Every structure is written in C-alpha cells, then in structure tokens.
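We modelled the chain as a single entity of 324 amino acids. Its sequence is:
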Amino acid sequence: MGTSFVSSGAAGANPVQAQADTGPCAITLRNVVKQYGAVRAVDGVSLDVRRGEMFGLIGHNGAGKSTLFKMMLGLVAPTSGEIRIQGAPVSGRDFRAVRRGIGYLPENVVLYDNLSGLETLRFLARLKGVPEHECVGVLARVGLGHAGHRAVREYSKGMRQRLGFAQALLGKPRVLFLDEPTTGLDPEAIRAFHATLRELRDEGVTLIITSHILAELQERVDRLAILAAGRVRAHGSVQALREHMALPLRLELQVAESGAAAVRAALAALALDGVRWHGLRLEARCARDAKMAVMAALAGLGGAVLDLQMHEPSLEDVFFGLAH
C-alpha cells in the first residue's frame, strides 16, 4: 500500500488515497474542471486508471459521474484540466484513432424498435467501421444468440440492456465505459454480465463502471473512486478504504445456553460497542485493531461459543462515511 492522505472535504484538500497508483495507465485525469454557468459539475478531479483493471466510479445523483464520463468519451470538453486516454489527449487530433478502441454503454439505451437485434448491430458496426461478421459472435457473448432475428420491439428491458452491451463490445474495445450497466437485468443475467466483464479484464480491457448498487461492485472492482459535489473524496481498493477509515467490524456470536454467563463475563473485559443480545445470539461492533484480541478471548471459551462471525464494513458503509 502507498501513502495515504486524509481529506477534510474542504476545497483544495487532498482526497483519501488509500492505495498508491502503480502500473501503466489507460486513463489519466489532471485537475479536470467542468463549469456550467455558476455550477461547477466537476471540480478539480485527478485520477489514474490502470490498464486492464476494473475501476468503479460511485457517488450520489449530481456528484459529477455522468459529466466525467462524457468528458472522458470526448463528448463534452472540460473547462480546464487534461484528460488522456491510452496516452492521447481527448482534445487532440490523435484521439480520433483512440476512440475507435473505446466502447460505451449509456445508462439509457435507445434502440431502433423495427430492426432486429442482429440488424441493429450490423447498422452500428457500419457506423463504427467494424466488420459485420463480428456481430453474430458478440450477440452470442451477451446471451442474445437465440434472439438475433427478433425485432427489438419484442425485447424485454433486460434484453435491450444486453443489446446495448453488445454494441459497446463491437470492435473489441480496449477501454470500456459502463454507466449503470445492469439496469433491468435479472439476477442470472447480472451474474453472466459480470462473468463477461471478468473475461474482458483478463484479456487486458480497461473497465470503468458506475452503479448505484454498491453491493454489486463491492467484490468486483479492483479500485474505485467516490465522488461528491464534483470532487473525488477517496480512491483505492475497497479493503484499503475500509482499513484507512478504521471502520468497526460487526461481530455475531451464537452461544450455548450453559455458557451464556461465561460469555457475558468475557465480553465485559473486551473492547466492544453496541452490544445487543437476541436470546442466545449476540451482535456487537469491534474496533479493527482489537479484532485478534477479541477472537482469542472468545476462542478460549471453548464450547460456550457455538459460532463466531466477523463481518467487514460494506462498501455502503465506506460510501456513507466519505461521501457526506
């Protein structure tokens, strides 16, 4: 882990950097600002996204995520600052060639209802300058191989979302932007979607993903950035942010009736907060630096403790601790 910096949240303060940025970068942002009249939608964002990593971007509505996406895609020019994708400035002439290697799945996918899924992909492939023979394989990869010849108007919301994902994969992009990509997908489709993302990452594709479903990102992203009011409040891996914030762990115990008195006596000497009993089940909060001492003390009670679980803070806990 690298040096950590703590932010007070004040203008100009450094964000929490819970991990050093290492390795070659696919995306670099330096002091990026986007001003709309009196509103500063993005306020001095600096980030590095490594090649071949899955990077999460999370924040409240209005935090600046969509504006940042549009600037990285070259759809909106920053007011100031610099953005480079694959080494090329987004505002420079070389970005046209780089953009051919970028895929984008917007939050709201708009498709042509009267075309079939395959016709839609072939049309978009022609616009992108991608060989049309790729389309059948891409449809199969997103689980729509059976529905390629059906009109899009017959597609469910989840199928439309998968077709949107398919168009983002046309041309075998090296950088892929995904804005709320699992909207409308059922649990099985979400599982398949993330399996595909893992395959893409293993192939060296750089993935930038936003989602309001924080539990979905928690175990899947390599690193993430938390945005609030147009600023990066923290970035790093989920575990590094947990450790940096020193959020308490959640302890759950199931005790034997015969050993309840011994457990209660042992708990009195331990660094626990929020102790609550539900019959013979206990819930409490444990300081991170007291974890091993607590576990050793409870393990020494033998059969008095039937089950013991320590739960790490969720990404939602981290988010609410930093984004406010």
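As a brief sanity check on the tokenised model: Residues 25 and 50 are 4 Å apart (CA to CA). The mean pLDDT is 88.
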